[in-house]
Design a protein that fits this description.
This protein has 3 domains: 2-80 and 111-130 and 178-264, no CATH class; 135-174, no CATH class; 267-406, Trna Endonuclease, Chain: A, domain 1. Helix content is 36%, strand content 25%. It contains 12 helices and 18 strands. Strands 1-6-5-11-10 form a 5-stranded mixed beta sheet. It has a 5-stranded mixed beta sheet with strand order 14-15-16-18-17, sandwiched between helices. It has a 3-stranded antiparallel beta sheet with strand order 2-4-3, with helices on one face. A hairpin with a 4-residue loop joins strand 3 and strand 4. Helix 4 crosses helix 6 and helix 6 crosses helix 8. It is globular and about 85 Å long. The termini are far apart.
Length: 409
């Protein structure tokens, strides 16, 4: 049985067995608890199962896409915008190499998990084996002679027990360090994915062979930071993290195994839009510098355009809309961000299916909010939609406050 849903949706009632309901609850709880440890923000549940009558249940999805497989039940959660547009934006967010970005069409029986794996392999092949970075790791050992750093108290205890060895810590230089362990685990996942074609699974196995023997992945490895020496790992490392964190551990339900891949979407779309704009607009800040509003803390708009003559701010709203009437709270937030940055110009970028209508500017006192809509029609080339948004934002940026004010007259 396959249930296809759209993110942020409450499904129609379905007939589900008690075993499937219990498994869905357990997997949702496991995923939500994992997500909570990775974020300081309140976590919106990725999946909830709600009772709708005898033997019937509704599934409420959060801001996530992915797939949950439980024996004969598969729940597929798709993006709220067309997959080709979502994949284009996500590829920009991850910094996927160009050849990987072009491969955004999935077969009917594939999910976004396979696309993440394809992108990961594309990024990994640019690193492995020629650009792998070695580093030092500490090993504890007991040796009959001094070597490395002697740990005197444990050594003394050994000698008191008649064991005349030295407890030492040795620094070993090699590939066995956290970043490579994360890539290694990502390749193991990709190599085991039956829905990937044979050539890609063979590529994953070939890349794995470059690492040799590594120690087991640790949870702390997923939180390690990158530095200048290994910054070229960034795309492959983030995609590997996505595969590892988004893909749940298998567990048994009778004779059936459950597997989960869920991916949080709003921050991904935000980063993709920002990277798209920053690639063409010099004033767009790749890593925004936030202003502090006392006593609330930092004001954090998604977009900051800082030029020599002005500062403009913007927000990305992963919503489909075609009028300001359904965006009142977002407009309030936009004006707040503008005031925090002592500017009167802000914008909101959203999505629409089909040709966007032209939104009138919203004027709140001296503040003007401009709306931009990404045409996410499935028949529309995502690259063209991106170029249209960039062009509109560039035009908005080129207008002086006096010109914008004259448009209100």
């Amino acid at each position: 049985m396959i249930i296809e849903l759209t993110e942020s949706q409450l499904s129609e009632p379905f007939e589900l067995s008690p075993e499937h309901v219990e498994a869905l609850h357990a997997e949702a709880d496991r995923f939500n608890s994992t997500a909570a440890t990775e974020s300081s923000e309140p976590v919106v549940p990725a999946l909830k199962v709600e009772y709708a009558g005898v033997g019937r249940y509704r599934i409420r999805t959060g801001f996530h896409i992915g797939v949950v497989e439980i024996g004969g039940l598969t729940v597929v959660i798709r993006p709220k915008i067309a997959l080709n547009h979502f994949a284009f934006i996500a590829a920009k967010a991850f910094g996927v190499p160009k050849s990987g970005r072009e491969d955004i069409r999935l077969k009917e029986d594939q999910t976004f998990l396979e696309l993440i794996a394809i992108w990961f392999l594309e990024a990994a092949r640019h690193i492995i084996p020629n650009r792998l970075v070695s580093d030092y790791r500490e090993l504890a050992d007991r040796l009959p002679m001094k070597r490395g750093r002697v740990n005197y108290l444990p050594t003394y205890r050994l000698w008191m027990r008649g064991n005349l060895k030295f407890e030492v810590t040795i620094e070993e230089f090699g590939l066995d360090h956290p970043i490579n362990r994360v890539l290694n685990q990502g390749l193991r996942i990709a190599a085991a994915m039956t829905k990937l074609d044979n050539d890609r699974r063979r590529l994953a196995r070939d890349l794995l062979s470059a690492f040799g023997e590594l120690s087991e992945l640790r949870s702390s490895d997923l939180r390690v930071g990158l530095d200048r020496r290994n910054w070229h790992y960034a795309t492959a490392f983030e995609l590997a993290r996505c595969l590892i964190l988004g893909r749940g551990r298998g567990f048994e339900i009778g004779r059936r195994t459950s597997r989960t891949f869920l991916l949080e979407t709003p921050s991904l779309v935000e980063a993709g839009i920002r990277n798209t704009l920053c690639a063409s607009i010099d004033a767009c800040e790749q890593r925004p510098r936030y202003e502090v509003v006392h006593p609330l803390g930092p004001a954090q708009p998604d977009l900051i355009f800082r030029s020599s003559r002005s500062i403009n701010v913007g927000d990305v709203k992963y919503k489909k809309f075609n009028s300001w009437g359904e965006m009142r709270d977002d407009l309030y937030q936009s004006v707040f961000f503008a005031q925090a940055y002592r500017t009167h110009q802000s914008c909101i970028i959203g999505f629409v299916d089909g040709a966007p209508i032209e939104l009138d500017d919203v004027h709140v006192g001296p503040n003007t909010v401009r709306g931009f809509l990404w045409n996410a029609d499935s028949e529309k080339d995502p690259n063209q939609s991106a170029q249209e948004i960039v062009s509109e934002v560039q035009k908005w940026m080129s207008q002086t406050p006096e010109q914008l004010e004259s448009l209100t007259v």
